[in-house]
Amino acid sequence: MAGLPHSGIGPYWQQPSRSILENHLVKVPDGNEVVSSAFSDFESVLHRSATTTHPPFLTLRDHAQEDDLLSYLNTRSPLHRFRQRNPTDAENPRGDIAVRFWKDLKEGAEREDGRTVEGHDEVDIEWPLALMMVKRA
Q1: Chain centroid to CA 112: how far?
Q2: What pLDDT does 74 receive?
Q3: Where does the pLDDT of residue 104 fall: very low under 50, low under 70, confident under 90, or very high at 90 and above?
Q4: Alpha-carbon span 40 to 43, nearest angstrom
C-alpha cells in the first residue's frame, strides 16, 4: 500500500543476528571469533529437526493462547526499532504492524479451521533455535 511503512520488521533486526537467521543459523560464529583464544577444541555440530526440511537447526516449540501471541510479538526488539522509526504506523485503522500481523495470522487460522478463533484458543508456536555450548580453554 502506498504511503505505508514496510510490511515487515525484518529490516529492523540488528546485525549480525539478522544475517545469521536468514542463513538458517548455519553461520553461528565460532566461539574464538567472538572471544579470541578463549575456547579450545571448537566443533560445530548442526542438528536437523525431524519436523523440518530446512537446513539444520533446532526447533523450539511452545503453546500459547491466541491473545498471548500478540503480547509475545510486542517483546521483539526489531518491532521497537520499527515503531521508533515509523511512529505514524500506529495510526493504521487495522492497528500497528504487530496487530496487523497478529490479525492476519488469526484470519488465516480461521480460514483454515473454518471457525472463529477466540482469544483463549491455543496456538502452537515454532521457531528456529541456535544453541552453542562451549568449554573455556
Answers
A1: 22
A2: 87
A3: very high
A4: 9
